[in-house]
Backbone:
């Protein structure tokens, strides 16, 4: 008998491509979780910059101070606070579905650039209703998202992670699949210990007994909030960066390419969009909440 599903962890990412934070509960908004990925990074030309290109962004993290303020932190104890730049002029940016955003003050941009060694600008998404979920990623008219990739929330399961780590251990002596894309790898090292699920940058982590059962879920109810699956999540080079050491490697892409590849991509997790959302209402999800699925 399959046990009742529960939320085991919740995570938010105040700044896109910074490290994430565990939270006990989160408010659900039409475009995702409150405080999740409303800030992002661009270069001097406005091009979107993520940890796919600049891996050491994962060495910084941001804490939410209040509804409009975050504190940026490095690993040496340094920090700087920034509030949403409500009155600043927008600048051109290169996020898919969003061509303008509001820049943070110069001193904040310098703080980030000095620690990363690349000239970057922190920008804020002022209107989260202005960035639609693309139709090719399962979006419906009127649905929007933060600066997250492709969908408002990402859900993964502990059962799938356990299976993946078992595959990685069992397949260590096997050669790489012949057409493994080098752009999906960040180094040559093999995994020496089980991978942490945070590599996949989920918002919601659910327990369970059946690996990859989430592939077939059409709807997910968590507490009082209901979501629909928009798409399965294809995985990229960012998952191969160790979130603690920031060192690169081949896993989990190497093993996913053997067990979970179709349409030229590797897959792990599902993207969700809130449904039946009433303007002005608020739903909260929390660690320990029961998870009900529809297929």
Residues:
């Amino acid at each position: 008998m399959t046990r009742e599903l529960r939320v085991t962890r919740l995570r938010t990412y105040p700044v896109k491509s910074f490290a994430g934070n565990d939270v006990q509960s989160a408010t659900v908004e039409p475009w995702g979780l409150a405080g999740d990925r409303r800030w992002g990074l661009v270069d001097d030309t406005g091009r979107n910059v993520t940890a796919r290109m600049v891996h050491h962004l994962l060495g910084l993290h941001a804490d939410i101070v209040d509804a409009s303020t975050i504190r940026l932190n490095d690993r040496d104890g340094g920090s700087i606070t920034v509030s949403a730049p409500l009155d600043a002029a927008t600048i051109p940016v290169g996020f898919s579905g969003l061509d303008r955003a509001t820049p943070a003050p110069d001193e904040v941009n310098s703080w980030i650039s000095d620690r990363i060694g690349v000239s970057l600008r922190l920008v804020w998404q002022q209107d989260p209703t202005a960035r639609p979920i693309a139709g090719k990623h399962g979006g419906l008219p009127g649905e929007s998202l933060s600066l997250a990739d492709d969908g408002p929330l990402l859900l993964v399961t502990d059962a799938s992670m356990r299976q993946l780590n078992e595959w990685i251990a069992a397949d260590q002596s096997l050669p790489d699949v012949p057409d493994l894309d080098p752009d999906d790898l960040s180094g040559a090292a093999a995994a020496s210990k089980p991978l942490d699920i945070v590599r996949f940058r989920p918002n919601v982590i659910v327990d369970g007994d059946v690996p990859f059962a989430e592939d077939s879920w059409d709807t997910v109810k968590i507490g009082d909030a209901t979501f629909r699956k928009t798409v399965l999540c294809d995985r990229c080079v960012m998952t191969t960066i160790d979130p603690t050491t920031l060192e690169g490697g081949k896993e989990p892409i190497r093993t996913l390419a053997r067990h979970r590849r179709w349409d030229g991509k590797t897959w792990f997790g599902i993207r969700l969009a809130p449904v039946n959302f009433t303007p002005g209402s608020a739903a909260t999800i929390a660690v320990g909440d029961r998870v009900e699925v529809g297929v």
